[in-house]
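Internal tracking record. Fields below are filled automatically when a chain is submitted to the structure queue. Please do not edit lines marked as system-generated. If the sequence contains nonstandard residues, flag them in the REMARKS field before resubmitting.
Queue: standard
Priority: normal
Entity type: single polypeptide chain
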Amino acid sequence: MDFQTLYDFSYSLSQYSEDAQDREALLFGIKKSLSIFFKIEDIKIYLLDEFSYLLKDFAKPWENLGQNAQYKEIEKIFDDFLTKKSELKIDKNILYFPISQKNKTLGFLKLISREKINPKNDFFNILPLSAKQISTLCTILKNNEQIKISSKFHQTVRNIAKITETQYELDYILPIIGEMIDGFICEHLIYIFIRSKSKKEYKLIWPSNCSDNKIHEYLEEITPKSKTIIKENGKMGIFPLIINQKPYGAIVAHNHFDKITSKEIEYLEEIQSQAQVTLERAKSYIEVLEYATLDALTGYNNRHQFEKRLKETTSSAKRKNQPLCCIMSDIDFFKKVNDTYGHAVGDCVLKTVAKTIKKELRESDIASRYGGEEFIFLLPQTSLEEAYVVAQRLRKAIENKKINIEEYKIDNVKEISVTISIGVSEFNKSDKMPELLYEHADNALYQAKKSGRNKVVIYNKNN
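SYSTEM-GENERATED OUTPUT FOLLOWS
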């Protein structure tokens, strides 16, 4: 074999490995490099998993090959390499050679050629060096993955700790925690349950369904002193959420094929601990916020305070015989934002929309968060025509606003845009119920959303 061929192969392998961001990319680079010697149809790497002691497809480590009918054949080839019965194996157009490091056999590479493999191929002169280089590249990538996982774990714990900076409703917080854990623990099904006070049974909060009825039986074992509960021969972990020395709920991780590793248990126990602190803090906030007037996320009036200001402004408008209008807005397709980018980005959108709208209002205008993604604004001394102009200004300001989400590290997405639909109504001084003012605005908002969204509709009692 000439020196140039050896150089081309080594250089190609090094170049592809530097650019590889994931396992599939590295496998592609190895395949392209080996194509210098073979007309490759396919290539696979099988490595022994250090936790399950099963061979795994390097590119698809989540797959359970034990369910595959060909697994015994794969296992036999590995055993032959493990016991040094063979250094390589050629079966017509298929080549197998072991991948080792520090004299320990880690797995093997399977190469399928489009033509019969010639044992005199130049590649076999550098097989020991190539196998070692490929092994090193696989190990480096796996180590880098562990570093990323560790970093993602710490970020997850920090994010869970920060939730109560903007949220305090438990029904909202728990799904956020579920999404965070699911984004970190990718190889297991994640569930979050809370315990019903009345029926004393566990209700699934996140995700929307769970087909494993056995989990409910295991949850009944939780006591105020419960620690981590391992079930299903190590394939299920139940991490109780104990608040004020009472079972409040549980985080459940389940894998139908592989055991939950000791490292994953360690990670989940830390997340469990932080989740308990976050939930305790949220419950305390709820008690305090019963007497609060402002929404924690946007700084607007909360719904309770809005109802108080509504009575004040309608009374004033009647007494002074002045016009009063109401604007009700809703972020279009907000659920899609949460589903696509997560609740943390959803919170960022809510805060940005609220801040952008606030800049367009007068100091005398009253801004409130009515609930979820709905905002409501009272405009004293404002005619219906003027309120319509204000509403269009708000709509355009949001339509043109670019919301920076770079800090949330969403793949290839640095900013997003949203739109709002708006309903406008005018206070009728003959109305005895102040609530009709925002109910009419809500009706107009419904018409705006029904007729296409990103528009302003004025209430018409004939619609």
